[in-house]
Design a protein that fits this description.
The chain has 10 helices and 13 strands. The chain is an alpha/beta fold and 320 residues long. It folds into 2 domains: 2-168 and 223-249, NAD(P)-binding Rossmann-like Domain (Rossmann fold, 3-Layer(aba) Sandwich), CATH 3.40.50; 188-220 and 252-318, Alpha-Beta Complex (UDP-galactose 4-epimerase, domain 1). The strands form 4 sheets. A 7-stranded parallel β-sheet has the order 3-2-1-4-5-6-11, with helices on both faces. Strand 5, helix 5 (138-157) and strand 6 (160-166) form a beta-alpha-beta unit. The protein is globular. The protein binds UDP-4-deoxy-4-formamido-beta-L-arabinopyranose. Residues 75, 77, 115, 117, 168, 186-188, 191, 203-206, 217, 219, 257, 280, 283 line the site of UDP-4-deoxy-4-formamido-beta-L-arabinopyranose.
């Protein structure tokens, strides 16, 4: 099977490409390298330097492919509240360009990187796919809208999609084959790694007065290689069942900010300065996924999302 991975030079995309290649798929990466990195391109995959805002480039890229994995998007939830136009154009219009190019070319299978951001403030835990969807930022809204458009394309054009709602992606390929570092990261793990590596002075811990065991925020961190594995499982499942899916991807266990900081201090041997500051607006105390649907439909569950795997695989990249 030949798979076009749009956004395949990004952090999650390059791990998905690795997994596809390891499973003997033939892979083409399509990426504009706006945040994706050349260093993330895997030698066995073909590469098209293209942009999802250019329909003619997408139309040419579809040629000879059986399925698409689409991970090309802006993903900074905070920025999406200040620059919604950027997110509307690229995440919404860009995806519609992809869907139109795919259906015109007869490509009717797509795996889409959605997000736990579609749920907003949790009403109950763990969060399953039936949880109300009330995104609290524009980024999450774009992901939810795309799911709805894909649902109509399923009905009207026979498109079969898997919308994978990622919780907090973290970690790196255990074998060191992905080495790109995100520029100006805001997510917790890369920030901690920059402090450990000495390129950032300290971690700001956004609040220690939450209703959680140690007062710091709890999230469901999922190892990026576990995430990647779910994409090949999703391709198989939409094929076998000939129906579309919406699936959470999480580890089903919560880690607090300070639990990760302590693991990072132990594993790196570095002091990792951490200063408690105010809560970050919009941050819920705790988010944990139910992965029951993924288990049932994809025969998938997390294998390497324990805190030591997340930190060790990240550190092996950052220490260089
Ligand atoms: C994790 C925890 C912070 C940085 C975001 C997006 C979401 C998704 C994933 C998708 C929280 C705390 C963090 C820091 C800290 N994006 N923290 N100091 O906010 O759960 O999710 O990324 O594509 O849509 O909102 O992830 O890594 O920013 O934060 O104390 O410098 O770490 O408060 O408890 P978040 P995060």
């Amino acid at each position: 099977m030949k798979v076009l991975v749009i956004g395949g030079a990004g952090y999650i995309g390059s791990h998905v490409v690795r997994e596809l290649l390891d499973e003997s798929y033939s892979v083409t990466v399509f990426d504009n390298l706006s945040s994706g990195l050349r260093i993330n391109l895997q030698p066995e995959a073909a590469f098209i330097h293209g942009d999802i805002m250019r329909p003619e480039q997408l139309a040419a890229a579809m040629e000879g492919h059986d399925a698409i994995i689409h991970l090309a998007a802006f993903k900074a939830a905070g920025e999406s509240m200040i620059r919604p136009e950027k997110y509307a154009l690229n995440n919404l219009n860009g995806t519609i360009n992809i869907l139109n190019a795919a259906t015109a070319a007869g490509v009717r299978r797509i795996v889409f990187s959605s997000s736990a951001a579609v749920y907003g403030e949790p009403e109950y835990l763990p969060i399953d796919e039936k949880h109300p969807t009330r995104p609290e930022n524009f980024y999450g809204f774009t992901k939810l809208e795309i799911e709805r458009v894909m649902d109509w394309y399923d009905r009207l054009r026979g498109l079969r999609f898997a919308a994978l709602r990622y919780f907090n992606a973290a970690g790196y390929d255990r074998r060191g084959r992905v080495r790109g570092l995100e520029q100006n990261p805001a997510n917790l793990l890369p920030v901690i790694m920059e402090v450990a590596a000495g390129t950032r002075e300290k971690l700001l811990v956004f609040g220690n007065d939450y209703d959680t065991p140690d007062g710091t925020g709890v999230r469901d961190y999922i190892h990026v290689s576990d995430l990647a594995r779910a994409h090949t499982a999703a391709l198989r499942t939409i094929d076998e069942r000939d129906e579309s899916l919406v699936v959470n991807l999480g580890s089903e266990s919560g880690l607090s900010v300070m639990e990760i900081v302590e693991a990072a201090r132990r594993i790196t041997g570095e002091p990792i300065a951490a200063e408690i500051t105010d809560r970050r607006p919009g941050d819920p105390a705790k988010l944990v996924a139910s992965a029951a649907t993924a288990r049932e439909l994809l025969s998938w569950s997390a294998r390497e999302s324990d805190v030591d795997s997340l930190v060790e695989t990240s550190w092996s990249v950052y220490r260089r």
